[in-house]
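Hi Q.,

Before the meeting this afternoon, I wanted you to have the NAP prediction in hand. No need to reply - just skim if you have a minute. The sequence and ligand are here:
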Amino acid sequence: MKILIAGSSGLLGSECKLVLGKDHEIIAPTKNEMDIISWDGVVETFQKTNPDIAINCAAFTDIEACETETFLVQKINIEGPRNLAQCSARYQCRFIHISSDFVFDGQKLVPQPYFEDDPPNPLSAYAVSKMESEKAVRHNAPFYSIIRIGWLYGINGRCFVKSIIKKAIEKSGDIYVADDQFGSPTWARRLAYQIKDLINTDARGIYHATAEGYCSRFAYAKYIIKKLGLTAVISPTSMKSLNKKATRPLNCLLENRLLKNQGICIMRNWKDDLDTFLEKYGDTIIREAEAAIEV
Ligand SMILES: NC(=O)c1ccc[n+]([C@@H]2O[C@H](COP(=O)([O-])OP(=O)(O)OC[C@H]3O[C@@H](n4cnc5c(N)ncnc54)[C@H](OP(=O)(O)O)[C@@H]3O)[C@@H](O)[C@H]2O)c1
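Predicted structure with the ligand bound:
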């Protein structure tokens, strides 16, 4: 099949390109080649390439900046997905859109997870935009899958694993991490394989896809540091005391209920995948962090 990936230079998009590229023909335009906020640009790409499936991994993902960059959030996170959804309808293409655990308010008591049909109640500008992106997709694409994900890490792009390692290497004192926010650290590569399996089925609608099991962000940070044998001191704090502009949900747990019901869930325990990731890429990330200090 011919698969168009928007946002293929990002954390998830790069893994989708790699994994799906093994079995499919991939069209991976850069932002310059297809800016999803340009209706004409998106139409032109669909017209030229005629994809069977379009996957939207593109988004404005700087959660703090989303609080002030209102125009860009609206354009990239809502109008962009709408353009892609409408083109998917026009060119009879299946559409897969990536959404977020942040559509929920996180008020459920841990370890109660959020299910696909729980009502969204977003807390930040980014979260509102992701909820609106889902509506834009539902209303415009006849054959869509929306995949809600969270706590993603990977070798390309920004992620929590890299930023904790960087802080540890910088050795600039204690690293404060929230111990009252909970989620399921998910490897972007695993998710890309899950998307690969999902597109082999007729799966339609909203899906949750995060790693199995959960931890606090503090426990997550400590696990990374210990696993890599680093010496930084990770100290617990509350999310509130980190003084973020954007409010984050404290409970980010998603249950992969539909994937499991349909017998297509390949998500693993978060520790298993994180172990593999750190064994594979830990040294590279450490070397990159050390090189950044030397510059
Ligand atoms: N990372 C997480 O923990 C997490 C959690 C929940 C949900 N998500 C969702 O998962 C999806 C993928 O996230 P990610 O972490 O992989 O994002 P990312 O690393 O920030 O990558 C975003 C991608 O979007 C591209 N992009 C931005 N604006 C664009 C535009 N106007 N037109 C075309 N492409 C554009 C970027 O291109 P350039 O690099 O050229 O700017 C980049 O390739 C997003 O929908 C995000 O909301 C992520």
